Amino acid sequence: QVQLVESGGGLVLPGGSLTLSCAASGSIESIYAMGWFRQTPGKQRELVASISIEDSTTNYADSAKGRFTISRDSAKNTVYLRMSTLKPEDTAVYYCRAARRLYSGSYYYWGQGTQVTVSS
Question: What's the rounded Cα separation, in Å, for the pair 66 and 44?
Answer without folding.
Answer: 23
